[in-house]
Write a structure and sequence with these properties.
The complex is a heterodimer of chains A (179) and B (359). With 179 residues, chain A is an alpha+beta fold. Chain A is built from four helices and ten strands. Chain B is globular and about 60 Å long. In chain B, strand 4 and strand 5 form a beta hairpin. The chains are: A alpha+beta (179), B alpha+beta (359). Chains A and B meet through helix 1, strand 1, helix 4, strand 8 and strand 9 of A and helix 1, helix 2 and strand 8 of B.
Chain lengths: 179, 359
């Protein structure tokens, strides 16, 4: 048994370059999931600051610098983010309202894995026929890396017929049909 | 397994390998046979019998919607929540052996080998840890000792229970319902993607990479154009925390594939499906095959093998994502590496055995 183990040790060789990190450091990951129903467009936005920029983002949220995110600070930040997101449906700008939000602790954010989650929605009254939605995220474009996806509609009454994104997924154009 | 950090990295590694020797040996002990349920129950009981009362309480937790989601691609120390169960590093060699027999019981020999290859890869990765750059108050921990085993619910031949085994780059979630065993959602990953051990070059996710590049290059120009998504994918979208979400599929539909291309995508999908034992994998593959016409294959990145390219397979009962990640500092846009891979395997209709437990 020991002989096999020693053989294994002797055989261990790295054939890869040393890596410095496996986790995001200086970027602000912003992952959006859109959902479409006949009367609203929902947005679920996950914001994950990398280790190096977590103090900067935390400072933007924790405006009284007491080291804790108060409910009013959380609300203010969620609204600040959502104001930078534009939704147009059939060429008309829709007003996005924050529904709720969840914030991690600074310690979790410092680890580069604490995710802020913001839920928002835009109300619309869809009529039967073809529609076109434009989504654009303009929040922290100097630091952001982006993902945007649309969830498969929960009803056959809505069919997504086309989805296009820009190269870095800050924006998405969706064509869909409401039956 | 606590080792002073001022030692030579090679010595540290040798020490860690010695400490984890049952893991190395257990590579040769993957189970054969088909009666995975009875094997898993017997293995669970045998494992629990090696533990003291406190350990048993930690390992055997309630199965519910809050406990079953505690898996992650992240290492100990920066995962968003503590994993269920106890770490291999806190077990005696006999307990480790029993724990790994439990993990192996519902898996195929090749699936179990893949698990072991990922664990050994993380041990290799640990030797790179001194160069990792993290804030002082964060302490990611790597290596064989950092993989957690848990039993959720009561091992039973009739009522649902789960085996969870996970750590950095591994999240094996097996829901056992009677004679059926469900592997979704699960996560495999690798960094480094290639390492050498015992005179062999190991690529834990090498087959996945080779088969995917073979498939994208087997498509004709029209199919490939449909498969290509023209945007950069910075991260995975099917990972932990995304239960119940089904994104709108993209890419080329397998209905347009030739018989040969269909065989290739099935062979690729099998890399995830066949982590579970042969009986369950066969049933799952039959279901995937039945829905193949409605299955999409999407690709982002170069099609030259060795590139850091992202792909996603989405069908009515299968979702697979292969997402290269960054390795460099800074982890800037456009710099994913083929040497750091995350994959996620889901079934939008049957994660955590939803179809079976709803009956």
């Amino acid at each position: 048994m020991r002989q096999k183990t020693l053989l294994a040790i002797a055989g261990v060789l790295l054939v890869v370059a040393r890596s410095a990190s496996a986790h995001r450091l200086d970027e602000y990951l912003q992952a959006t999931r859109l959902s479409i129903s006949s009367n609203e467009v929902g947005i679920e936005l996950d914001l994950t600051p990398g280790v190096d920029i977590a103090p900067l983002i935390f400072a933007l949220i924790n405006t009284d610098h007491d080291g804790r995110i108060s409910p009013s600070e959380a609300e203010r930040y969620a609204n600040q983010v959502v104001r930078e997101i534009a939704i147009e449906i059939d060429g008309r700008r829709s007003q996005l309202g924050v529904l709720r939000y969840e914030f991690p602790s600074f310690q979790e954010m410092s680890a580069g894995e604490g995710t802020i989650r913001i839920y928002a929605r835009a109300i619309w009254r869809g009529s039967a026929g073809a529609h076109y939605l434009v989504y654009q995220n303009n929040y922290k474009t100097d630091l952001g890396v982006y993902l945007v996806n649309v969830l498969r509609p929960g009803t056959p009454a809505i069919e997504i017929t086309e989805q296009r994104r820009d190269r870095f997924q800050r924006g998405m154009n969706l064509a869909f049909v409401l039956r | 397994m606590n080792i002073p950090s001022d030692r030579n990295p090679l010595l540290l590694f040798v020490f860690a390998v010695l400490a984890a020797s049952p893991l190395l040996l257990s590579v040769q002990r993957a189970p054969e046979g088909t009666d995975a349920t009875l094997k898993a129950i017997a293995a669970a009981q045998a494992f629990l019998s090696t533990l003291d009362e406190h350990q048993r309480k930690v390992v055997n937790v309630e199965l519910n919607e809050d406990t079953r989601i505690r898996w992650s691609n992240l290492p100990t120390g920066i995962a968003p929540y503590p994993r269920n169960g106890i770490r291999l590093g806190d077990m005696t060699p006999a307990q480790q052996e029993a724990a790994l027999k439990l993990v192996a019981a519902p898996l195929s020999p090749s699936g179990y080998q893949k698990v072991i290859n990922i664990i050994n890869g993380d041990e290799v990765f640990k030797t790179m840890a001194p160069s990792l750059r993290f804030r002082e108050n964060t302490t990611p921990v790597f290596g064989r000792g950092e993989f957690y085993v848990a039993i959720l619910g009561t091992p039973s031949a009739t009522t649902p229970w789960m085996i969870q085994f996970g750590g950095h780059h591994l999240g094996i979630n097996i829901t056992l319902v009677g004679s059926q065993h469900v592997l979704t959602p699960s996560h495999t990953g690798a960094q480094p993607a290639t390492y050498s051990m015992n005179g062999q070059t190991i690529r834990p996710l090498g087959n996945e990479n080779e088969k995917a590049f073979a498939l994208i290059n087997a498509l004709n120009a029209g199919q490939r154009k449909q498969a290509m998504i023209d945007y950069y994918v910075a991260d995975g979208v099917l990972g932990p925390g995304h239960d119940g979400e089904v994104i709108q599929p993209e890419g080329v539909r397998a209905a347009t594939f030739t018989q040969g291309q269909q065989a290739m995508i099935l062979d690729l999908i099998q890399e995830w499906v066949s982590i579970i034992n042969e009986t369950d994998a066969k049933a799952k593959m039959a279901e995937v095959k039945k829905n193949l016409a409605d299955t999409f294959f999407a690709w982002s990145g170069p099609t030259i093998n060795g590139s850091a390219s992202y792909f996603r397979i989405q069908g009515p009962t299968v979702e697979i994502e292969y997402a290269p990640q960054c390795v460099a500092v800074p982890c800037g846009s456009g710099r994913p590496s083929p040497d750091h891979i995350h994959t996620f395997y889901r079934d939008p209709t049957n994660d955590y055995g939803a179809k079976l437990t709803a009956r």
